[in-house]
Amino acid sequence: MYSLTLPWEALGISAVWLVLMAFMVALPCSQVGSFLILRRMSLVGDAISHSVLPGIVIAFLFTGDLSSPWLIIGAGIAGLLVTIFIEMIHVGTRVKSDAATGIAFTALFALGVLLMQLYGGSKVDLDPDCVLYGQLDHILEYEAVSIAGLDVPRPLVTMTAVAFFTLTTMFVFYRVLVLSTFDAGLAASYGYKPVMVHYGMMFVLSIVVVAAFQSVGAILVIALLILPGAFAYMCTHKLPVMLSLAAGHALLSAVLGLYIYAWFDCNLAGAVVLAGAALLVLAWLFGPVDGQLWKWKRSLGEVEKPDDLIL
């Protein structure tokens, strides 16, 4: 029953598409999420993942097409608005940043749920379960695109394009992103604008979240943003290695998630996140930087304390 060849025998070429789709969803989340962790903004990813819902619903009301690029635009605008909304609450009142974040994303998520309930029977064909958990295991039901003689599911093509855009953007702006993350004053002295970098990153994050929304929903995308970066940070304090390990975590989570999905006939998105969480537990126990085993060895003087984060 738990054969290592079961997913590939039972699903055939579909297993390849499912793994690739899961990886293409997790990969950009892992890279953006790593910087969110370093900037101590993990909760912002949570906020944006919830706040894009009203943007998606409103855009769908006008287009009636879940694959329309207007959904990404609407969600991107909603993502930027929530960051501005958080800043307005934090600066204009005595409310702390984390509380302002909680106020903003719950209000916008509630608005999105209300819009779905009001128009659910007429114009909006959005399943609440899909909103929460996604439909990663249903991508094969969508229209296929012929590429080099292969019928590739359209959601995979879209997500691959988003992953390419995200990785390219982060590569081009890597220097300014690193400087503004670790020393905003130094970045400003070089002529960069940390505020613009912040909002640019929020816009990219919004695009990644809405692209992943259809596959993993508003809840599980939070895990894909946080788990890979947290896993990598427990294993290394070298930034390039951290980003590589986060990408490796995304790939391994996709593969292991497919096995859980095939063995237990469960939700694929949930299986991928569960696999990622299991990897995080292993890093917490045995990670060479923050793993409990290595901390115990350092307390005995058997190994040296690792260096601080190296860029």
Automatic annotation (TrEMBL):
SUPFAM superfamilies tied to this protein: ABC transporter involved in vitamin B12 uptake, BtuC
Gene3D superfamilies, per database record: ABC transporter involved in vitamin B12 uptake, BtuC
Entry coiled-coil feature ranges: none
Membrane topology of the entry: Multi-pass membrane protein
Entry keyword annotation includes Membrane: yes
Membrane-crossing segments per the record: 6-29, 41-62, 68-87, 99-119, 156-178, 241-262, 268-289
UniProt keyword Amino-acid biosynthesis present: no
Pfam families: ABC-3
Annotated GO biological process: response to zinc ion; transmembrane transport
Compartment(s) where it occurs, according to its Swiss-Prot or TrEMBL record: Cell membrane
Primary site of residence: membrane
Family of this protein: Belongs to the ABC-3 integral membrane protein family.
Protein name as catalogued: Metal ABC transporter permease
Organism of derivation: Persicirhabdus sediminis
